[in-house]
Amino acid sequence: MDYRMYDLIEKKKHRNSLTEDEIRWMITEYTEGGIPDYQMSAMLMAIWFNGMTDEETTWLTLAMAKSGDTLDLSSIPGIKVDKHSTGGIGDKTTLVVTPILAALGVPTAKMSGRGLGFTGGTVDKMESIPGMRSEFTEEEFLQIVKEVGFVDASQTKTLAPADKMLYALRDVTATVDSIPLIASSIMSKKLAAGADRIVLDVKCGSGAFMGDFDSARALADQMIRIGELAGRKVVAVISDMNQPLGHAVGNAAEVLEAMEVLKDGGEERLRTLCLAIAVEMLQLSDRARDSYEEAEAVILETIRSGAAFRKFTEYVRRAGGDETRFLNSVEQVEKRTVEAGNGTSSVSVTIPTSPALSETPVLVLSEKEGYLSSCDNSEIGMTSVMLGAGREKKDDVIDMEAGILILKKLGDPVKRGEPLAVFYTKKEAVIPAAKERFLKAYHISETPPEVDPVILEILR
Ligand code: URA
């Protein structure tokens, strides 16, 4: 049946629900070029203001999932468990959990995104390893999962193309932060990518699309319901994004930090979240243990025995990465002392250095004394973009060695003139503005603040 887009916009504008048939028609027509962007923009804004019912959101998700190819993972034995994060700053959990699961015999066939705006993307992080490929044919993709146990690939152009087109349009029409639009965008890709079960990491806070807990929970609930209606079991971990995850923000630096976790180290909050996500994924798989405690114990054993790190190295080799340079960059992490003057005195701090990181670290010193009490985390993401670690426009080239090493976490005491962070960048000219932006992002209080735990809730 044919509809007029004008009538559908009118309907949504007046808070009426669209039918399954109307939504399917709209997505098919838009993907085929039959609906202009200006009409679809009006529809997106009407949805932003008036929302969608559960049914409408599910129909939209299914129509988007079917707008292109879908992956058939049935040739890979066992239950396939996927993972997706709604996007954050310093979020390198995928690099940790996928090799752990693979080492435990749970295959993950993951399609990831690139960074855009203030959030980073797993594909860019992977490509910071020299030689690494992230674009594969479907045959290669499946073959790598069968051989290595996991793949972290870039989403193919033909998978959920409606989402690609709509996301680009939402990005320029201020319609990204809408629960039905985010839920349908994420779940359409996950359904098209074929996994049986999905663990979602729903980020909440100043560095996430969902700024407060209630909206993060509503988004998580919505995605779980879509999963149920589509016959896929979904677990959601709601996690804090009011400060960067771990210490590193920036591609090569994040790979090094992820490898620290795989070598049984790493920053506490990062480790906690990685372990929780890995446990949830294991418990959804056909290798589930009798209890969550047992699952965590076996995951820790996989890390401590070196099996998970070896799995990641095996993936680097198989995906075309330069194994020698990768191992050198991980194993030659040395400490070095960097000095900085603040006009009247100078300070020094010992920081890691590696062949994968930019040669010229710059210290950022606190201008105040007190406790780090809050952080406008999206500004930290934007600072790292200024330093060269991300894209302001889609086709900007990333400097893989650029980024930020966060030395202080929320709740830490800080003295005036003490280093808060280290910048890695080749863009000398942006350093003063980047420092100003970074320092403005933190609020320093006289008394210690309450700091949220990294895991806020798990919805099973
Ligand atoms: N990630 C997605 O894939 N889509 C959104 O809409 C937001 C985050």
Report on the structure:
- By secondary structure, this protein is an alpha+beta fold.
- It has helices at residues 5-13, 20-31, 37-50, 54-65, 93-103, 122-127, 138-148, 161-172, 179-192, 213-229, 251-262, 268-284, 292-304, 307-318, 323-331, 377-386, 431-441; strands at residues 81-85, 108-112, 150-154, 197-204, 233-240, 248-249, 334-341, 346-353, 361-365, 370-375, 403-406, 413-414, 419-424, 442-445, 455-459.
- The strands form 5 sheets. Strands 1-4-5-15 form a 4-stranded mixed beta sheet, with helices on both faces. The chain has a 4-stranded antiparallel beta sheet with strand order 6-11-13-9, sandwiched between helices. A 3-stranded antiparallel beta sheet has the order 12-10-14.
- α4 (54-65) runs parallel beside α9 (179-192).
- The protein is globular.
- Uracil (URA) binds at residues 86-87, 167, 176, 181-182, 185-186, 209.
- Uracil (URA) binds next to α9.
Question: Would you spell out the secondary-structure blueprint of this structure?
Answer:
Layout: H1 5-13, H2 20-31, H3 37-50, H4 54-65, E1 81-85, H5 93-103, E2 108-112, H6 122-127, H7 138-148, E3 150-154, H8 161-172, H9 179-192, E4 197-204, H10 213-229, E5 233-240, E6 248-249, H11 251-262, H12 268-284, H13 292-304, H14 307-318, H15 323-331, E7 334-341, E8 346-353, E9 361-365, E10 370-375, H16 377-386, E11 403-406, E12 413-414, E13 419-424, H17 431-441, E14 442-445, E15 455-459
Parallel strand pairs: 1-4, 2-3, 4-5
Antiparallel strand pairs: 5-15, 6-11, 7-8, 9-13, 10-12, 10-14, 11-13
Helix pairs in contact: 1-3, 2-4, 4-9, 4-10, 5-11, 5-12, 5-14, 9-10, 12-13, 16-17
The structure holds uracil (URA).
